[in-house]
Amino acid sequence: MTTTDSASGEGVENTATPDAQSVTVPAQAPPQVSTPPQPSPEAVAAAAIRTEAQLQLGGWFASSILFALMPTFIQVLAGRQTAGYVQPEFLELLSRAQLYMVCIGITIQAAVQALQEMRKKGSAQLAILCLLNLIIMFIATLLASTADGPTTIKPMVGQQSMFLFLGAMLVSGSTTWICSKEAARRDL
């Protein structure tokens, strides 16, 4: 092999050959590939249960709450387009929404759902929620029977129905959440 001497520019013969036994090549370690830690099967199952319960709670909210209030929203929007329409006060608007009837509907649905779930797996928490749903339904039924009388105070009806509606939404939503989690847990 001929190499060029950088100082003189002349070619120099390189006759040295390496001894095959004296040369050792260090062993190269395989490249380290770090794998992310895998979630435990319990964590995966818990995430699946939570996702299924969230989907069912979203469906409950859309079908029970939004559709129940839709006639009132449509009435307000349609009224704003007509001449001479006077925008009602918020509490008077709530009294027109017939929230007592909405409360009765969502609480009876939640109570039945809780009873069906308790047949499959008894739960003290569901029993308490079922009882609360039935109490709210009973109160809403009593108040709804006098809400349209000639001497009723519309803002008071609106205020009472709003508070009862919020309570019904909280209790029946909790019932739906627990029932859907239990159903998803059983399905996995």
Approximately how much helix is present in the residues?
Answer: 55-70%
Describe the global form.
elongated
Helix/sheet category:
mainly alpha
Please give the alpha-carbon distance between the first and last residues: 73 Å
Strand content: under 5%
Biggest sheet strand line-up: 1-2
**CA gyration radius, whole angstroms:** 37 Å
Order of helices and strands: EEHHHHH
Q: Could you give a short account of the major beta sheet?
A: 2 strands, antiparallel
- By DSSP, the count of extended strands is 2
- Separate helix tally: 5
Poorly predicted runs of 5 or more residues: none
- What do the pLDDT scores average to? 82
Task: Describe the protein in words.
This protein is mostly helical and 188 residues long. Helices cover 66% and strands 3% of the residues. It is built from 5 helices and 2 strands, in the order ββααααα. It has helices spanning 41-80, 90-96, 99-120, 124-145, 154-187, and strands spanning 2-4, 11-13. It has a two-stranded antiparallel sheet with strand order 1-2. It is elongated. The two termini are 73 Å apart. The model has no long low-confidence stretch (mean pLDDT 82).
